[in-house]
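Memo to structure team: turn this sequence into structure tokens by end of day. - J.P.
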Amino acid sequence: MASHRATDRRRSGWRGVARTIGPIVGLAVIAGCASTRTEPVSTAAPVMTSDGLAEVSRTRTSGLWVKPDHQLGRYDDVLINVAGFLYRDGQEPLSTEQEREIRRMLAGAILGITEGTPVGVANRSGECVVRVEIGLKDLRLFTAPDTGSRSSVVSSFGETTMVVEFRDSLTNVPLVRYAAHRGLGGGPGTGHGGADLGRLGKALGAMVTDMTTELQTIVPSTTVRDATTCNDGIYKLTGRG
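Reply from structure team:
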């Protein structure tokens, strides 16, 4: 029972954070298009969040915030928690099965960047374990009728904002927060009822890849490789170890 209450608190915390991000990350996006040009924050004093994270970069469709002394590179394993998702106003909820599939895709997106790397996947908290909270906000998906025909053209299959947080698994202190927005583009319909989750899956993969690139710019230069019981797994994941 206690573990369920802790999970509920984490999800509630993630939802609170997610609701504050929309106005911060510029979402002036043409569906299916995204600028990848990073614009470092140029103010003398970095913009700080209420929980102590400094904004370090921003593009037209993403933002990155880090704890000044985050030491993310020292962690060896990730503990993945799918925080869920928040629908955009007016979006009809998906079926239970499609919601489950989105949760599987969110977990899989993080698992995908750990495969074949020095970073392992944990099933409990620990000194060298970072908890990764991942979820979606402003989820809007076109839901088609089950016509069996591909002749219809869909102007937009939807859009969403992915929010990922890295927190120390023992203290729950936030270390890094990343948010990115993607449109799913348009094109011929599938002829099948429901949302086109294949397009959403590709968008999630692209956003997580971009996040990894962002982390590669901050982790090596900000990791103090002191002698600890950890093996600097995330530092090595950047390719610099």
